[in-house]
Amino acid sequence: MIFKAVGEGRPYPDHGLETPSDWSAVSPRIVRLEQLITTKRTLDLALVLAVDSTFYGDIFAHVVSWRGDLYLEDGLHRALRAALQQRPVLHARVLSL
User: Fold this and answer.
1) What order do you get walking across the sheet with 69-74 strand by strand?
2) Which residues contact 68 (CB under 8 A, 6 or more apart)?
3) Which InterPro entries match (predicted)?
4) Is 72 or 58 the better-scoring residue by pLDDT?
């Protein structure tokens, strides 16, 4: 299995970070894919295959740490691309709530 679990929605409280510039204050770190719980069940395949998928956004995935779990809020396409390339880790900005 690639992820710890596949979820639907955000079980944690709203944190107020919406834009890449909001998230830029959170330092990136390496996260293991097997520790992540997704917040989306579906993904647009075009995002996974796009060469410039991070051109207009943050180059790091956005993860929320809440109650001992890591939730992949944004960057599912990056995580899947890492898995397809047989990389077990992902660089992400991890916000602790």
Assistant:
1) 5-6, 36-38, 69-74, 61-66, 89-96, 28-32
2) none
3) VapB-like_prob
4) 72
